[in-house]
Amino acid sequence: MIFIKRFAEGKLFIKAKVNNVSGPPAFFTQLKLQDGMENNLAPTYYTDNFFRLLPGESKTVTIEVAVQTEMQIICN
């Protein structure tokens, strides 16, 4: 779930909350920021990546990406 987006100094900051709603633990959970064509946006920086979530656990990750004039970001 994406819940905060903000722009500052040519960068986009996104806060994403990830929930483990399954029964087993989720290991090596990785987030990727992609454009509408499923291409990874680079350079992209994450406050955490490749983490684990126990059942019912959630984690908030901040994603930072440089904004380009033609860039269109779709957050689902």
From TrEMBL:
Highest taxon in the source lineage: Bacteria
Pfam families found in the cross-reference section: Ig_GlcNase
Exo-beta-D-glucosaminidase Ig-fold domain segment(s): 14-67
Residues of the signal peptide: none
UniProt protein name: Exo-beta-D-glucosaminidase Ig-fold domain-containing protein
Source species of the chain: Pedobacter frigidisoli
